[in-house]
Amino acid sequence: DPPTKDVYKPGVRKEYGNHVALMVMEDSSLGFACVEGSSLHLWSRKVNAQGDAGWVHCRAILLESVIPVASSDDKPFVVGCAEGVGVIFVSTGAGLFTIKLDSGLVKKVAESGVYFSVLPYMSFYTPDRGRFPSLAEITDV
């Protein structure tokens, strides 16, 4: 289901439905990305001086010249983002693409398919080996 009705303020359309990606914006505020027509739109949650919160349109990126579509009926839509690195995932009938927000670099990362949500795996934590000796060190007595 799309977010609750109170999330949408004037200027943010309900038609975005499930085709949005929540993200952390450059200023650490909550944001989301969505496609309307042939443009990728970035929105950010802002609070005014009176304490009222609303969505502010931050940026639009024209997609029709950078991301291919399979046919004129094919519509791109947002399927995810990579938090902390400024990358948005957009799916079309021609494939799955990434868009780097800082440079505008577009890269095809997968062939066409049905992509509902992309959750990229970024890294993992490995404890310091100095504190946890390996089994080989323990048995080398």
TrEMBL record:
| Taxonomic lineage | Eukaryota, Viridiplantae, Streptophyta, Embryophyta, Tracheophyta
Species name for this entry?
Aegilops tauschii subsp. strangulata
Q: What is this protein called?
A: Nucleoporin Nup133/Nup155-like N-terminal domain-containing protein
Source domain of life: Eukaryota
